[in-house]
Write a structure and sequence with these properties.
The protein has 443 residues and is mostly helical. The chain has one domain (3-437). The protein has 21 helices and 5 strands. It has a 3-stranded antiparallel beta sheet. Strands 1-5 form a two-stranded antiparallel sheet. α1 (3-14) crosses α14, α4 packs across α11 (231-247) and α7 (157-165) packs parallel to α12 (251-267). The protein is globular and about 60 Å long. The protein binds zinc ion (ZN). Zinc ion is lined by residues 21-22, 168-169, 209, 263, 267.
Length: 443
């Protein structure tokens, strides 16, 4: 391939209009996954501890843990840059700076709130607690219902875990790259954002929430930067922090860190997060790039817009279906029942450092083209086959579930089966991740 075409392919990937969310609202996934799971259901209630108290008590141990994590990541994660001296966690940090210095040491957005809170999915729960503004909890606008929890308050493991599963989408990984125009991105040492548009705040989290581990050799050869994803780094880091917190008696932070790590495990079960361009073959990709190269741009722009629309459409459908199922049927809906069914968890061997790459994303990647075809066939045409349609902009309040019921009722069954197929592994891997942290949990 000539150098000009080579550059075009890079540009093609670089400005993927990435939706970096993964499944929409992971609390709606964790809710049915753990609703009946004995180790969560029967766990004794837990006293809420502030992050400052946890860090102050465990400062020394965390210095060691984060050092070991850095060594592990350097050895195991492609293009992982060592943590830099100036942001390392130390045992002589002033109490007032502990939270910010910890967030910087793990290289997440240092403005992350980390207040005690829970996300409520069932409006009957905890009616007496104050409702928080999204700004108290998240760096990203959200319509979810967050309740204020006071340090020392007693809450359940289920509440901590379901809430924490969605927390990484509250902005933890935003702005951490050198070209994101943030003061911390400049000193974290991650370099420039490998793909997605660095000017779009939300796309900056994409390389942490996606993993393109199963693309063709030619794509890796031409665009090796797509290998630069740090999803495994986050999964391992939060697994280690959770284990440490449990071992040292900080159950609240044990479950909260566990939920953070689980988020990334679940993201990899989304085919649009484990596959560069579902539904577009490598020859097609090269062909539309070639056209782009001779200034015929619409095939490329159209293809990217359709992938984005389908990506967003399946997550919109997933969210609305799970929300409705949790509110109205709890575990008596096919999808929530499937998510909560742990009888087949043991078909996977124990969760190891290679599970995210070799098992989870491999499976979802293998479903990518089929998923894309089903969406194309079953969803209303304008949502998935018209490139002039910008999902959630053309119709800001679009509800794919209602659309399907109104216009394509026969498609509902097919889509429900698709979601079950994609999400059953999310249930099993979430529980196996749980067991990797608390090995006494039963299979
Ligand atoms: Zn995510």
């Amino acid at each position: 391939m000539n150098p000009k075409t080579f550059i075009q392919v890079i540009v093609f990937c670089l400005f993927l209009p990435i939706n970096a969310m993964g499944w929409t609202n992971h609390a709606t996934l964790a809710y049915p996954i753990f609703f009946s799971f004995p180790e969560v259901k029967n766990a004794s209630s837990i006293k809420v501890e502030t992050i400052e108290h946890f860090l102050k008590t465990e400062q020394k141990g965390l210095v060691r843990l984060l050092y070991d994590e850095d060594v592990w990541a350097k050895k195991n994660i492609y293009a992982y840059p060592h943590s830099l001296e100036r942001i390392k966690f130390r045992d002589n940090i002033l109490s007032s700076e502990l939270k910010t210095r910890f967030l910087m040491a793990i290289r997440v957005n240092p403005y992350s709130r980390l207040v005690p809170y829970i996300q409520i999915l069932n409006s009957d729960d905890k009616k007496n607690n104050t409702i928080l503004n999204w700004q108290d909890v998240s760096l990203i606008k959200s319509d979810y219902k967050y309740l204020d929890i006071k340090p020392g308050e007693i809450i359940s493991a289920f509440e901590i875990l379901t809430t924490a599963c969605d927390e990484p989408d509250n902005g933890l990984d935003i702005g951490v790259w050198e070209d994101n125009n943030t003061e911390f991105g400049k000193i974290y040492g991650f370099g420039n954002q490998p793909f997605g548009n660095p000017k779009l705040e939300y796309s900056s989290q994409a390389p942490f929430h996606m993993g393109f581990f199963h693309e063709s050799d030619i794509i890796y050869l031409m665009a090796s930067f797509i290998k630069k994803t740090y999803v495994e780094y986050r999964i391992h880091l939060y697994q280690s922090l959770a284990k440490y917190a449990f071992e040292t008696g900080h159950k609240y932070w044990g479950f909260r860190f566990m939920g953070w790590g689980m988020h990334y495990v679940q993201d990899l079960t989304q085919p649009y997060h484990s596959t560069l361009l579902p539904g577009i073959s490598v020859p097609s990709m090269l062909w539309i790039n070639l056209l782009d190269n001779i200034a015929i741009r619409s095939p490329k722009n159209d293809a990217l817009q359709l992938v984005t629309n389908r990506h967003l459409a399946i997550e919109n459908y997933q969210y609305n279906l799970l929300k409705e199922a949790i509110e109205n049927y709890l575990l008596n809906h096919n999808l929530t029942k499937a998510l909560g069914d742990s009888t087949n968890d043991s078909q996977y061997v124990e969760f190891t450092n290679l599970t995210p790459r070799n098992v989870i994303s491999k499976k979802s990647n293998s479903y990518a083209n089929e998923t894309d075809k089903i969406l194309e066939r079953c969803l209303p045409k304008r949502l998935v086959s018209e490139p002039s349609y910008i999902f959630e902009k053309t119709e800001p309040d679009i509800n794919v579930l209602s659309e399907i019921r109104k216009n394509e009722p026969e498609a509902e069954k097919i889509l429900e089966e698709l979601l079950i197929k994609l999400l059953v592994p999310a249930g099993a891997h979430s529980r196996n991740y749980f067991r990797s942290i608390l090995p006494s949990a039963q299979k």
